[in-house]
Design brief:
The structure holds 2 protein chains of 2 kinds. Chain A is an all-alpha fold. Chain A is 79% helix and 0% strand. The longest helix of chain A is centred in the C-terminal third of the chain and has 34 residues, at 281-314. Chain B has helices at 2-17, 27-56. The chains are: A mainly alpha, B mainly alpha. The interface between A and B is medium-sized, with 28 and 22 residues.
């Protein structure tokens, strides 16, 4: 009897903790899963097809990297109650503030275009014309944010996050050799030697795991959600769980394409889905559905990151807890970004490949800047008090920033001048 | 036109509100921002160069 009463007590306690987490879960897991956007899915699919399971270990290394970077935004947002754009304006003055805001706007808009490219391509596999996809996506995204409650948006976003897990059953359907996955994937190695192409893939994987808009989104979401200092441990757990989920999903995508499409050059996730359809239509359909979901989740978060940033700086009402009449400019920015990005995809013969290339280059330009600001802000004791970075956190954060500055510079050069590093 | 003037006034207001950085400009902060400037100049310079190459078709 004593055993059962103890078991009952423990299960009640566990359910209570899960219930509390589900209330507080959100910014961390949403931003991390949204990071597996259309561009991310393409990168992972291409990595698996090109290198098989050989780069899985590298993806696993990105879990702590993503966690360390995003955890800082939780502390900064919960303590200062300010979004990232406002924190940069306030901390470093108007010059760096405008630089960050304009850079964010450009890179967000271009990334949004790539999300629409992914979503329209995914639905085209099921025979949906691009114009209908664009209209449907904009209507769906309006429904998601126009409730006038942050909570509703967040829980709907979490639902879409759950769809991102579709790659896990997809990977089991292709029957990979578990022994090969573990043997080739978990032992660090560079298949075929370290060369320019491998470096390009490594950087593309870093670029899809840590993106500038994620810093802006998570900090603003923490503020909009009303998280306080006491919620920071939950925010950390949420971020850690999100970083694990995002990388696990990436690993399963690599397993799918590494098993079914080894050696195939993949230019887009839609192409990978179409190729997979020939082998197993269910797996192909899973990849296409996942690609659409990834694009949708990415598009929601990216548009919100920009709208929040503009609202913070221009002093407009900028909360999802407001109705459209109370925050017209916030919602106007959100829909302006969405509609214009959607229209670009519908332009016949639009240079979509060039746009994707520019997204990568501009994103790497902003990333080191955003990271440097983040670390400096987390060392401002007058603003964050006891939550400022410890020497160990500065060391880890500094190492991440220096590595990313060096690698992203090389990556930028590689993308712009591919013949230089071969 | 009125809306444009209002926007300019708003930008002016933002510039004066955030004229001075609030963070103490210690040696480490100055060095970090200087390195960041150099990095951005180098990368933006490369982007402009690449753009010129694309436009001129070289």
């Amino acid at each position: 009897m004593n055993f059962f009463s103890k078991l009952y007590y423990l299960s009640r306690k566990a359910w209570k903790a899960v219930g509390l987490y589900l209330v507080l879960a959100g910014p961390g897991i949403v931003v991390m899963v949204a990071d597996n956007d259309a561009g991310g899915i393409t990168t992972y699919a291409a990595t698996g097809a090109k290198y098989g399971y050989h780069l899985i270990w590298f993806l696993l290394i990105l879990i702590p990297v993503a966690y360390y970077v995003q955890e800082m935004t939780v502390r900064l947002g919960a303590v200062t109650k300010r979004g990232h754009a406002e924190a940069i304006f306030d901390g470093f003055g108007a010059f760096w503030g405008w630089f960050s805001l304009l850079d964010l706007m450009i890179v967000d808009w271009l990334t949004l275009v790539t999300e629409f490219i992914g979503m329209t391509a995914a639905l085209a596999i099921f025979g949906v014309p691009p114009w209908l996809s664009v209209v449907a996506v904009i209507v769906l995204m309006a429904v998601i944010v126009l409730h006038g409650r942050y909570w509703t948006f967040e829980k709907l976003a979490l639902l879409f996050c759950a769809f991102n897990l579709i790659y896990i059953p997809g990977a089991f359907l292709v029957h990979p050799s578990v022994r090969d996955v573990l043997h080739q994937g978990l032992i660090p190695n560079f298949a075929g030697g370290f060369n320019g192409q491998l470096f390009f893939f490594l950087m593309a994987n870093i670029g899809t795991t840590i993106a500038p808009w994620m810093l802006f989104f998570q900090q603003s979401a923490v503020v909009d959600k009303g998280m306080l200092e006491k919620d920071i441990p939950w925010g950390r757990f949420d971020t850690l769980l999100g970083s694990i989920v995002t990388v696990v999903v990436a690993v399963f995508i690599v397993v799918v394409t590494g098993t079914v499409l080894p050696g195939v050059d993949i230019d887009s996730a839609a192409q990978a889905a179409a190729e997979l359809m020939k082998t197993d239509r269910y797996v192909g359909a899973f990849l296409a559905i996942g690609l659409f979901d990834a694009g949708l989740l990415g598009a929601i978060c990216i548009s919100l990151a920009s709208s929040w940033a503009f609202g913070e700086i221009f002093g407009w009402a900028h909360s999802l807890n407001t109705k459209i009449r109370q925050a017209p400019w916030f919602y106007a920015t959100y829909f302006f970004m969405l509609v214009t990005a959607g229209l670009v995809v519908l332009i016949p013969h639009a240079p979509l490949v060039l746009i994707t290339l520019f997204v990568q280059v501009i994103a790497v330009t902003l990333l080191p800047a955003a990271l440097v600001f983040l670390i400096l802000l987390l060392n401002d004791r007058t603003a964050v008090g006891e939550y400022c970075n410890t020497p160990a956190q500065n060391l880890v954060g500094g190492l991440i920033v220096v590595s990313i500055v060096v690698l992203s510079t090389l990556y930028g050069i590689t993308v712009m001048f591919p013949n230089l590093i071969q | 036109m009125k809306a444009f003037r209002r926007l300019l006034a708003k930008i002016h207001d933002i510039n004066s509100r955030y004229r001075e950085p609030r963070i103490e400009m210690s040696g480490a902060v100055r060095l970090s921002l200087m390195v960041l400037r150099l990095y951005l100049f180098a990368l933006v310079g490369l982007m402009v160069y690449k753009f010129v190459l694309l436009v001129t078709g070289r």
